[in-house]
Design a protein that fits this description.
With about 575 residues, the chain is of the alpha/beta class. The chain folds into 3 domains: about 10-90, Roll (Urease, subunit C, domain 1), CATH 2.30.40; about 95-100 and about 230-580, TIM Barrel (Alpha-Beta Barrel), CATH 3.20.20; about 115-220, Diaminopimelate Epimerase, Chain A, domain 1, CATH 3.10.310. Helix content is about 30%, strand content about 20%. It is built from 17 helices and 23 strands. The strands form 4 sheets. It has an 8-stranded parallel β-sheet. Strands 3-2-7-21-22-23 form a 6-stranded mixed β-sheet, with helices on one face. A 5-stranded mixed β-sheet has the order 9-10-11-13-12. Strand 9, helix 5 and strand 10 form a beta-alpha-beta unit. The radius of gyration is 27 Å and the shape is globular.
C-alpha cells in the first residue's frame, strides 16, 4: 500500500486561509448584489445634469447604481436580485409637495360629502339643504369656497344667507375671512359697537350706516362656530392613511405640512411608530402670534426642544410657520399699492391695502428666536407688502445670525417685485409657491388688478434667473382627491400650469415670459423641493446613495405634447424600493 502523502502545516494553513477568503468573497458578492434592478426604461434622474439613463439598481432601499441595462444586469446575482423590465416607461424621482395641510384635509368630509361649488347659487343651495338637516339654532358652515373661483367672483351677501337659513347662524368661511348672516353676527357678539379687544389683527366691514355687513376680516379667533361630528382618534388615523395612499397614487413620496399642530404631530408619530407612513413628512409647526411676547417666545422654545428635530427619513421637524397677511382669494393680502374699491370683495376704502397680522417689530423678534434655535422660519405672505415686511425682518436678523444655512422661507409669495426677487436670492430664502392658484384664480385677479399689475405674479423664471430657490406645492386644504380637493394637488396639472401659465375661465397665458421649461417644471416638484425641506441628500433625484423613491408614469414627459402633461397618470409609486401603489 502506498504511503499517505505528507501535508506540511504551512500548506494546511494556506489552504484553510484560501477557503476562508473564498467564502468571504462569496458572501461579500452576495451582500453587494442589488436587491432589484430596473431595466429598459427612460429614467429621468433629475441629477445636476438632468441626465436620462436606461436602468438603475437598488439595495437596502437605496439607489446603488444608475446606467445602461447591461451594466445593471451585470450587478445582479441569481437568487438575490429581482429583475424588473420597465418596458420603455418613463421613470421620475418620487414627487414632493412643499405645502399641504393633510390632517384637516383627511377628515373634512367625514360627516358628509361636500359638492363642488362654482356659483353663488351652488353655495346657497348647499346651505339651504343643510338647513333641512341641521337642527335650528346650530351653525351651518362652509370652508374655503374662494370667491375668486365662483363665477360671480364675490361673497354671498348677509341677506342671501339669511334668506336660505333664517333659523341658523351661518359662517361662509374662506381663508382668513368670513361672511356671516344675521344670526351668525349675533352669536359672535358682532354689532356696530364691537371692537377688536386683544390687540390682534382684523376688523368688521360696515356699511354707510355703520352696521356690520357680515364680512369679518381676520377675526376667525372670535368666531366659535361648531358643527358636524367630531372624528374619533381612530378615524383621524384611518383617514390620514387613506389620504397618504391617494398622495402615493398621485406620485408623491414626500410632503411638507406647513401648519403642523401638536395634535397633528402626535398622529404622524403614531403612524411613524407603526411603520404606516407611506409618505415622508417634513413639519413646519405653528405657534400663536397674538398675546404677550414672552409667551410667544416660550412657545418657540418648546418647538425647538422637539425630538423630531433629529434626522429621520420619514418624519422630521424642520421649522415654524405663521400667517403674516390675509389672502388674495378673499381680498385681504397685504399689498404695496391699494387694492382698489370692489364691492365683490367688500372693499369700500380707496386706501385699503389688505391685512397685516403681525407688526414688524414683533415679527423680527419671532424670526430672531427661531433662528437662534437653528430652525427654518416661514410665513404665509401672499402680498408684495407682506413679502417686503418679511424680508425686512430676515435682513435685520441676518446681521446678527447668518440665515443662509437656515433656508428661511416665504410661503405663497404670489405677488413679488424685482427687488424682492433679488433679496430672496441674496439671503438664500426659499419660496414655496402653488401654481394651482395661478390656474384657478387668474381670471378674478386680472379683473381686479389688470394684466400689467400681475407682471410679477408667481415670477418663477425670474426667481430662477436671479439664483433663487423655489419649489412647488399645492396648499392642499380640504377633501381627498387630487383634482376635487381644495386646492387640487395633482402635480402634473401644476407642472403644466408652470409651463403654459394658462388659467381656468381666462383666455391666453398670464405673462408667458415667466413660464418654466419641462426640465424646470420637473425639478420644481423633485430636486428643488428636496432642497426646501433639507432632504437634498436623501431624495429628489435618482442617484447612487439616495433613497429609492421613484414613480413610473404612462407617457414620455420630456417629449409628449405640452397639453398632455396635465393628463399624466402614475402607474406605480415606489418608496425605498418598496412598491406602495400600482394602478
Amino acid at each position: 500500500m502506498s504511503p499517505r502523502p505528507l501535508i506540511s502545516p504551512r500548506r494546511s494553513c494556506l489552504a484553510a486561509w484560501a477557503g476562508l477568503v473564498a467564502c468571504a468573497s462569496s458572501a461579500w458578492a452576495q451582500a453587494a448584489a442589488p436587491d432589484a434592478i430596473f431595466l429598459h426604461g427612460q429614467v429621468v434622474t433629475v441629477d445636476a445634469e438632468f441626465s436620462v439613463r436606461e436602468a438603475f439598481a437598488v439595495r437596502g432601499g437605496k439607489i446603488i447604481a444608475v446606467g445602461t441595462s447591461g451594466e445593471m444586469r451585470a450587478l445582479a446575482r441569481e437568487g438575490v436580485t429581482t429583475v424588473r423590465d420597465l418596458g420603455g416607461r418613463c421613470v421620475l424621482p418620487g414627487l414632493i409637495d412643499s405645502h399641504v395641510h393633510a390632517p384637516a384635509a383627511a377628515v373634512f368630509e367625514l360627516d358628509h360629502e361636500i359638492p363642488a361649488m362654482e356659483t353663488i347659487r351652488d353655495v346657497l343651495d348647499y346651505i339651504a339643504a343643510r338647513a333641512q338637516v341641521v337642527p335650528a339654532g346650530q351653525w351651518i358652515q362652509t370652508s374655503q369656497i374662494f370667491i375668486t373661483r365662483l363665477r360671480e367672483s364675490r361673497f354671498p351677501t348677509r341677506a342671501e344667507l339669511d334668506a336660505v337659513a333664517p333659523r341658523h347662524p351661518v359662517n361662509f368661511r374662506t381663508g382668513p375671512d368670513n361672511m356671516l348672516n344675521t344670526l351668525g353676527l349675533r352669536a359672535c357678539g358682532f354689532d356696530r359697537d364691537w371692537r377688536v379687544a386683544d390687540g390682534g389683527p382684523g376688523y368688521l366691514e360696515k356699511d354707510a350706516a355703520g352696521e356690520p355687513t357680515g364680512l369679518a376680516r381676520g377675526l376667525g379667533r372670535y368666531i366659535k362656530a361648531t358643527g358636524g361630528r367630531a372624528p374619533t382618534e381612530a378615524e383621524h388615523l384611518d383617514r390620514l392613511k387613506l389620504l397618504f395612499r391617494d398622495y402615493n397614487q398621485t406620485g408623491f413620496t414626500a410632503v411638507a405640512d406647513r401648519g403642523a399642530t401638536p395634535e397633528s404631530i402626535r398622529r404622524y408619530e403614531k403612524l411613524r411608530a407603526g411603520g404606516e407612513l407611506s409618505v415622508r413628512v417634513a413639519l413646519s409647526q405653528t405657534f400663536p402670534t397674538v398675546g404677550p411676547m414672552a409667551s410667544i417666545l416660550g412657545a418657540i422654545d418648546q418647538i425647538a426642544a422637539s425630538p423630531l428635530r433629529q434626522p429621520d427619513p420619514w418624519l422630521r421637524l424642520i421649522g415654524t410657520k405663521i400667517w403674516l397677511d390675509g389672502g388674495m382669494l378673499t381680498g385681504s393680502a397685504y399689498m404695496l399699492q391699494p387694492w382698489g374699491k370692489n364691492e365683490n370683495y367688500g372693499i369700500r376704502d380707496d386706501s385699503y391695502r389688505g391685512v397685516l397680522n403681525v407688526p414688524p417689530d414683533r415679527l423680527a423678534a419671532m424670526v430672531r428666536r427661531v433662528a437662534s434655535h437653528g430652525l427654518q422660519f416661514t410665513a404665509h405672505a401672499v402680498g408684495d407688502a407682506a413679502g417686503t415686511v418679511l424680508l425686512d425682518a430676515y435682513e435685520e436678523v441676518d446681521r446678527e445670525v447668518p440665515l443662509r444655512a437656515l433656508r428661511m422661507g416665504v410661503t405663497h409669495s404670489n405677488f413679488m417685485t424685482p427687488d424682492l426677487i433679488a433679496r430672496t436670492a441674496r439671503l438664500g430664502v426659499v419660496l414655496d409657491i402653488q401654481p394651482i392658484w395661478l390656474h384657478l384664480d387668474t381670471r378674478t385677479l386680472v379683473a381686479q388688478f389688470g394684466y400689467d399689475r400681475l407682471r410679477w405674479f408667481q415670477p418663477l423664471q425670474s426667481i430662477l434667473a436671479a439664483g433663487g430657490r423655489t419649489g412647488g406645492g399645492s396648499d392642499h386644504m380640504l377633501k381627498i382627491g387630487d383634482l376635487r380637493a381644495i386646492n387640487p394637488y395633482n402635480p402634473f396639472l401644476g407642472m403644466w400650469t408652470t409651463m403654459t401659465r394658462r388659467a381656468k375661465w381666462h383666455d391666453g397665458p398670464l405673462h408667458p415670459e415667466e413660464a418654466l421649461t419641462r426640465r424646470q417644471a420637473i425639478e420644481f416638484y423633485t430636486r428643488a423641493n428636496a432642497w426646501l425641506l433639507f432632504w437634498e441628500n436623501e431624495i429628489g433625484s435618482l442617484e447612487p446613495g439616495k433613497r429609492a423613491d421613484f414613480i413610473v408614469i404612462d407617457r414620455d414627459l420630456l417629449a409628449c405634447p405640452v397639453d398632455d402633461v396635465k393628463d399624466t397618470r402614475v402607474l406605480e409609486t415606489w418608496s425605498e424600493g418598496r412598491k406602495v401603489f400600482a394602478r
